[in-house]
Known about the structure:
alpha/beta; 31% helix; 333 residues; 6-stranded mixed sheet; Rossmann fold; Dihydrodipicolinate Reductase, domain 2; 2 domains
Amino acid sequence: MSRQKNIAIVGATGAVGVEMLRCLEQRNFPHAGIKALASARSAGKELPYRGGSVLVEELTPESFQGVDIALFSAGSGISKEFGPIAARAGAVVIDNSSAFRMDETVPLVVPEINPEDAMKHQGIIANPNCTTIITLMALNPLHQRFGVRRLIASSYQAVSGSGAQGIAELESQVRSIAAGEEPVRSVYQHQIAFNVIPHVDVFLENGYTKEEMKMVHEGRKILHHPDLQASVTGVRVPVYRSHSVSVTVDFAEMPDVDEARRVINAAPGVHVVDDPSQLLYPTPLDSTNGDDCLVGRIRRDLVFDNGLAFWVVGDQVRKGAALNAVQIAELFV
Length: 333
């Protein structure tokens, strides 16, 4: 497994696909060759890479011959169709969609948390939901020290989580309102400019959304904690990029705030920005285009006896998607 790999990116022209290519370049990922794969309408485009460019090819069942690692970010439908084809061709598939996350035979991996699970793959490895990743980056070190029992979380999710069209809608509505015109809605059910929408993904029978339940189910799988209880509210906010999450956690052991700061700072990929006396706490802009998740507002909770509350932010396009996938790929180099 020490030789340089041949890499393919499926969905290379999308926001996450472009970010995957950027992460490979920035991290100097060792590879023998790279393929950029997308739909027929994107074939022929060129994507900048390492001072040159990569030509986008049409995704076909034959695209994976000789590919060692295939990074997928083209939606669950494409993943379900082409992921098994790539795996049968001999590639390790790292999939960013929800297609395989809860499949018992597919590892769900955050490299800073459960890298050993990746080695149990049967051809496909799943990348978790972006909000789950960002939350668990802060939660896992605390769980390892104090033992998480249950949590309540509210996410503040950027419009880029809806793709380029989410950003375009926010920009368009802001311009319309500034001009005294009626804003047009197409991506979101309600106006997103100067507003927040407590609705991310589709509603389920239990009153929660699919996005909210992802954190519950994925958190249990990644932490190997089937008894974890969680109640989550997902909110779309008029921010371009980077998600924020407010988290209140009940632990098995009473947490100490100073020790909580220490264990978070000692964990890879996450660090504390927390000094309210100096108005220091992380905001979405602080994490945008960055690799690390930032944690602040760490304090004893006033409801749970063994409770701790904190605020975490992270770039959902990078650590919440592209970077996490590339880090999984690095486990095999």
